[in-house]
Amino acid sequence: MDAPLNAEAKVRFELAALYRLVAHFRMTDIIDTHISARVPGREDHFLINRYGVLFHEMQPEDLVKIDVEGNPVDPGDEETNKVNAAGFTIHSAIHMARHDLACVVHTHTADGMAVSCQEEGLLPITQHALKFYERLGYHDYQGIALDLEERESLVQDLGTHKAMILRNHGLLAAGSTVAEAFVNIYYLERSCQAQIKAQSAGGKIIYPSKAVCERTRGQYERPTSLDYCNRVWTSALRLIE
Questions:
Q1: Which of 11, 64, 137, 208 is the most exposed place for a label (fewest CB within 10 A)?
Q2: Which residue, 99, 241, 93, 108, is CA-closest to 185?
Q3: Residues with Cβ < 8 Å from 139, sequence gap 6 or more?
Q4: Rounded CA separation 29/20 (Å)
């Protein structure tokens, strides 16, 4: 009986730390946006932030365990179990369909939103962006994600990818571990920041060749990629000690 509890406690610690790291890197939107993680051993339960807790304040006990219908699993009153309704729609869609993904991050950064408004989306112009070359989904804006019927198109647009741009909205990144999800959202955000700065400079932008884009993407997908994510994660945790 102890093993599942210990596994959940570990994920709660990691997820709360990820919230604080997202705050550290200024990817927050006051109390909006959300990060979720699957409860180990349960395909139908996941953890998400209690609505109203600022990301830099997040602790393991601030995470609410809910099922795929959005119902709180643990006892508590309406306030302690309150979650973002749009967050439930987006995250439950992915967790229900992609059991290979343990953690999902959604942000509304200025640069992420700016790129989400551009017809061409993320441009393959930086080393960071090439991590997502032909590995990035796009989801058309349908209004605030309160309609559960949107879950089907969210899943279809993500496809087999681990990252997606929500048109006119923001960014989404996921991972098979919390560490991988952190690396993916960090790289996606930095790619958007660099793109907006390059476009703002006004000069002609240089594009790598298709062959170089494919080669660089392959380098990101090498067998040791998760080891790299763990190394980044372990180092990043020292930023919030």
A1: 208
A2: 108
A3: 153, 154, 157, 158, 164, 165, 166, 167, 169, 172
A4: 13
The Cα–Cα gap between 45 and 36 comes to: 10
The tokens of 74 are what?
Answer: 């643990």
Residue 78 has pLDDT above 90, yes or no: no
Relative to beta strand 163-166, strand 45-49 is unpaired
CA dihedral 14, 20, 25, 30 (to 10 degrees): 130
| Residue whose C-alpha is closest to residue 104's, from 12, 32, 178, 154 | 178
Six token digits for residue 177:
């571990």
Rounded CA-CA distance 86/29 in Å is: 14
12: amino acid identity, one letter: R
Count of alpha carbons within 13 angstroms of residue 218, beta-carbon side: 6
Is there a contact between 144 and 170 (Cβ–Cβ < 8 Å)?
A: no
Q: What is the pLDDT of residues 193-225, one digit of tens each?
A: 999 999 999 999 999 999 999 999 999 999 999
